[in-house]
Amino acid sequence: MNSWECRPIGDLIKTTKTWNPLRAGSDETFQYIDLSAVDQDKKEIVGIREVACCEAPSRARQLVETNDVLVSTVRPNLNGVAKITADLSDATASTGFCVLRPITNVLDSNYLFHWVKSPQFVSDMVKKATGASYPAVSVRIVLASSIPYPPIPEQCRIAAILDEADALREKRREALAQLDSFTQSIFIEMFGDPVTNSKAWPESTTLGEVAQIVSGITKGRNLNGKTARTIPYLAVANVQDKALNLSTVKEIDATEDEIQRYLLKKNDLLLTEGGDPDKLGRGTLWNDELLECIHQNHIFRVRLITENITPLFLNWLVGSQRGKKYFLRSAKQTTGIASINVTQLRGFPLLLPPMELQQDFIRVAGVIESQQIIQRRALSELDALFASLQHRAFRGEL
């Protein structure tokens, strides 16, 4: 264990400048970094936008510089953090961020960035957050929080090690993304543009004609004294685009009749009811990942009752631009949230290419999936390694 002192972050940073874009010229613009611009998984700024000064949001106030570290104070889980790169210098950040500008030769920017990404820091912020539905911490709390404080050369050494480990993880993520794009390219090559139906496949059949489509179990319903047992169920967060996230699976009490009604079977297509408009049509196939599992009412279960379409082809078709455009046209939208119902889902117009071609796609997609499994396993191992290095780094054990 190290003998490093811990220092308040506020003692190791400079004061930043603010401005009011509304006082600038009416024809001027600025780059705005709001809370949604930060990808919480990648810890990067991915959605910066150009805003007219005359239309500046009230939160657009903080001028940032290269190597500033942004820490979100109002994000759920309080883990929206990012580092300002040279191309974003002089951008304006939302006051929803605490802007940390390390004092030169006192605190290394990369070391600070790794610290605010660490489970230790995030856990501390979560404990100190207030607000049940929208947890937040104040800038004062962030600045008062402590950081392990080794000498600058040691800070730089630790940051370099963590940078290298993180770069390996990023390469694995890129490889997975390329494999996903490859499968998408194969789908388009084999079946044509699904929006225009460029290969003129039959398209008079709707999803409701070839599948049973049901909503799932409702939480909080009254069992009226009926005998029930506990069983895992899938919530919206579990169903991703062509993938399942089973890191957290909740349970619910259900009667035997309900379990039989909502029990998932291999090759059931699971589709989310709604959320962000760009996520409509998000879904994946169930592959008996759990011995028994049912699904929540905000997830539709699509079970094929015909043999002229395969579950995998259907998954890719529904998730294609054909599906997204159809759902956007059909969905009910309120305040940025879109949702579809069973009737709209049943009306989705299918494409029906020959079964032989669908089977060919299954074989090719299977080969790619085998490579994805290898990459996911390697990424999981790198994630575990990085977590271990991160833990040891801030304990002075590297």
Mean pLDDT: 91
Q: Give me the side-by-side strand order of the main sheet.
A: 2-11-8-9
CATH topology name of the largest domain = Adenine-n6-DNA-methyltransferase TaqI, Chain A, domain 2
User: Which CATH class of the largest domain is shown?
Assistant: Alpha Beta
Number of strands: 24
Shape: globular
Helix content: 25-40%
Explain what you see:
The protein has 398 residues and is of the alpha+beta class. The protein has helices spanning 109-117, 119-128, 139-144, 152-191, 207-210, 256-262, 311-318, 321-330, 342-346, 355-393; strands at 5-8, 13-14, 29-33, 38-39, 44-45, 49-52, 60-63, 69-72, 81-83, 92-94, 97-102, 146-149, 211-214, 229-234, 239-240, 243-244, 250-254, 269-272, 274-275, 283-285, 294-295, 299-304, 332-334, 337-339. The chain has 3 domains: 5-149, Adenine-n6-DNA-methyltransferase TaqI, Chain A, domain 2 (Alpha-Beta Complex); 152-201 and 353-398, Helix Hairpins (Orthogonal Bundle), CATH 1.10.287; 202-351, DNA methylase specificity domains (Adenine-n6-DNA-methyltransferase TaqI, Chain A, domain 2, Alpha-Beta Complex), CATH 3.90.220. The protein is built from 10 helices and 24 strands. It has a 4-stranded antiparallel β-sheet. It has a 4-stranded mixed β-sheet with strand order 6-3-10-7, with no helix packed on it. The radius of gyration is 25 Å and the shape is globular.
